[in-house]
Structure formats: structure tokens, C-alpha cells
Amino acid sequence: MASAERGSSGPLCLLLLLLASSALALKPASARRGSPGTSHRSRRAPDYRTLYYPQKIDHFGFDEDFTFKQRYLLADKHWNENGGPILFYAGNEGDIDLFCNNTGFMWDVAEEFQAMLVFAEHRYYGESLPFGEESYADSKRLNYLTSEQALADFAVLIRYLKATIPGAKDSAVIAIGGSYGGMLAAWLRMKYPDVVVGALAASAPIWQFEDLVPCDAFYDIVTNDFHKSGEGCSESVSKSWNAINNLSAKAYGRQWLSKTFHLCSPLQNKEDVLYFKAWLGETWVNLAMVNYPYEADFLQPLPAWPIQVVCKFLNDPSLDDKALLKNIFKAVNVYYNYTGNTQCLNISQAATVSLGDRGWSYQACTEMVMPICSNGIKDMFEPLPWDFKSYADDCFKQWGVIPRLTWITTEFGGKNISSHSNIVFSNGGLDPWSAGGVHKNITDTLVSIFIPEGAHHLDLRSKHADDPVSVVRARQLEVKYMKQWIKKTNTAL
């Protein structure tokens, strides 16, 4: 999930938008082609073909019949042309290459399943722009950026592939996705059970809506990640907010902060300081999301267990304000400058720029309203109450639209999803988005898999020598359920 851009947002609502729309993938430096799960120093691009399908801009009305080119990636090296299964990635909020290159699980199991791999790009992201360069021009053109339209795109594309690829007519299709893509994979199975036989929904916070889960659970998980990663670490972050407030009250203090944090643009006023703190908060959240056990570059090039590395600089919360904030800079520099190539830190640029921040900001201001709050007592953040009115007002200023707080639960249901089947929900104990995930088996076919050492959809990344045992076992279970769905489908033919 992506971060909102800096703009007309009020400071409080800006932070809500930054975190409520931070990436399910969820948005994480520019997309780098590479073998999923590898470090940023050794990459090998997966082998696939890039194709396009003419999708209707509006699936649910009949007055407008315009189309756009939806991009999808197809890999059939290991596919059994006599009805082998199709593993279908439900693209989320960004360039589909990014997800293709960071969903190594699908590439790892393709030969075992004799499967075709398809990665479908979400409308309004990457190259799949319904109105070309004018797609973001106004709310009228953005009106077709919804999860419902995207799901219909996927269903239509799957039917097209099965109808036109020789041998695919009876292929079992399994939807796979992580973060928002995981939500889409689950909803695709719920909405179009005749099109996909099952879904693997990794790190999919389908319950992070309305009051289905406590709004403070998200920040509690981030805080716990830092607390467990080093003595005094979460306490140092907690104390840093007052230190920033104290120093930023005067012009010379803002100058000191700007110089100490090597900011590309100096902090000039109170609004800049509030944005600076929101940017820091987003950085801590992103570190929790990508706290992987090996070097990776999904959001930024990072070391193994990056929070542990960060916490080495944050072991003494008793320091005075300036000494503490110098250490905070060293900590955030791990996230933004692990390669040593960054000349200055640009807080006006989202911490997750490889994904479609503008698009997700709009979605977060329409139907993807995920309440997130903090109290500053149980967590290491400043108090941040959930205020829907302020959130909605800010969305209207930014996009000219009013969010629909209850639409997702109306459209896809709340917690009562027991009438559905064949969905595996996986969540990691280190991932803040697991706060809105499914954590218990609902039925025999709506299954939850928990990965204690897992960050954001770790199970969808390539297998790695440093994988925790828990994620290895999780993938084994996922393969087991997927094989069951395929077998049942093939038996019914």
C-alpha cells in the first residue's frame, strides 16, 4: 500500500493518509528488476512475455464502451499444456514488474505445479492507464479506479486466457497476492468463484476497516518489532518526538535539524516540522514491513533484519535531545542510504516511491479507508486519534471526493465470510498489516497460517537460505492446500 504525496494535506490527516495508505503492500526507490528474494547486489530477471488485453474502462455500465490496454506478464516455461494450472497474481498498487520480481514463491513452485504464471497489472498503475497521461487529471477520469473494476478486469482477463490459449480451457486458476494484492486475491475468489478455484492471500488486511479491529493494533506491532530488536530502541524513538518539538520551536533548531538529517530542503516552519515527523513515522513503519531475515530491496536496499541494525544506534534513550536525534538520523540513514549513494534525504518524496503513490492516495480517499490510530502510551509514536471527519475533509481538498467509510464491508462483507471457501490467509508476526488480517481458521477451507518471524508477505518471496523455519513450513502448507484445490477441480472435470 502506498503513501500519500505531500500536498494540501493537513499535518494530522497527512500522517493518517501516509500510514493508512502505506504499503500492503503493501508503497514502497524505483523498481528494480531482479530475482525475488535476492539482495540488491545480485539480480537476475525472471523470464516472461509482456502482453496487453483491451479492457473495458467501465465494466458496470453500458453507456460507455471505451477500452484501455491492461498489461500482464505471462511465463509458461514449465506449463503443462494439457490443462496445467494457472497461478494468477492479482496486481496491486504499482508497476507489475515490481510484484513479478518480488513474488519468488510463484517462480519457485512453477515447475512442481507445471503451472503457467500470470501477473496482471492493476488499472491506473504502471502502464495500465485508462486515459493515458490524463488518467489522473481529475476525479471524473479517476472515477474508474476501484477494487471492483480491478477485480472485474482480472476475471475478464482469466476468461480470455482460458478461451484463447490451447490447453487452458479446463485449467484450475489460483489467485495469489500480497498486501492489497492479497485482499484482491481473496475478494476475487469470493466474487468470482467460477473463475478462480482458490486464493492465497498473504498479508491481506481485509478486516482493517470500520471497527472490525482496534485501530491502535497497527502501531502496537511496529513498536513491538523495535522493542524486541534492541534494548532502549523503541524508547529512543518514543523520546525523539519531544526532542524534535523542543528543537524545532526556534529557527536555529530547525536549521540544526535540517543539517543534522542532511535534508534536501530545510525545515522552515511548523508545517514542515509536522511533515518531517510524519515522514519519520512512515520510515519506522516501512522498516517493520520489510524486516526480512536477509538483504532485500523491495522498498529500499536494506540489510538483513534491518530493525536490528537500526536499533544499534538507538540503545540509549537517556541522551540529551541533540545526541538522541543524531542517533535517530543514523537509524533512518540505514533505510534511505544503505548503499551510501544518497546525497541528501528528501522528505517531500514518499518513503516508498516505487509504487503508485498517487493512485493509492486516491483509493485511500474513496473506498480503502483503514482506521489507524496511536495513543503514545502503548506505542512509540505521538498520539494520533482516528478522526474520520478530518480525514474526509483532507481527502476532499486533495481529490475532490468524500471517502465511503463503510463501503468495503458492504461490498465484500465484514468478518462473516464463512459462506466462502478455498482461501488461505497468511500473516507475519512482524508485519503491522497483520493487525487487520485473518488469524484463525474460519472453516476447513478458510484457513489461517501464522508466521511468527515473518514481515510483510515474506512467504511470497523466494526461498532463501536464511528463511526462518516458520516461513518454510508456511509455504509447505500453502502448496498443500493449492494442490488440494487443483486435484478437486481436475477430479470434477
Task: Please tell me about this protein's structure.
With 493 residues, the protein is α/β, with parallel strands linked by helices. The protein has 2 domains: 1-215 and 352-493, Rossmann fold, CATH 3.40.50; 216-336, Four Helix Bundle (Hemerythrin (Met), subunit A), CATH 1.20.120.980. It is 39% helix and 10% strand. The protein has 16 helices and 8 strands. The protein has helices at 11-20, 96-100, 104-113, 139-142, 147-164, 180-191, 217-229, 233-248, 251-260, 270-289, 306-311, 321-336, 357-364, 388-399, 407-412, 469-492; strands at 49-56, 67-75, 86-90, 116-120, 173-178, 198-202, 423-428, 446-451. It has an 8-stranded mixed β-sheet with strand order 1-2-4-3-5-6-7-8, with helices on both faces. Helix 5 (147-164) packs across helix 6 and helix 8 crosses helix 9 (251-260). The chain is globular.
SSE run: HEEEHHEHHEHEHHHHHHHHHEEH
CATH-defined superfamily of the largest domain:
Alpha/Beta hydrolase fold, catalytic domain
Label the structural class. alpha/beta
Strand percentage: 5-15%
Q: How many β strands by DSSP?
A: 8
Rg, rounded, reads 22 Å
| Count of runs of 4 or more consecutive helical residues | 16
State the CATH architecture of the largest domain.
3-Layer(aba) Sandwich
User: Given the C-alpha coordinates, what overall shape results?
Assistant: globular
Q: What is the strand arrangement across the widest sheet? A: 1-2-4-3-5-6-7-8
Mean pLDDT: 90
| Biggest sheet details | 8 strands, mixed
Quaternary: single chain
Helix content: 25-40%
CATH domain class name of the largest domain: Alpha Beta
Examine the coordinates and then state which fold CATH places here, giving the name of the CATH topology of the largest domain: Rossmann fold
For the termini, the CA-CA separation is 38 Å
Extract low-pLDDT stretches.
2-16, 19-43
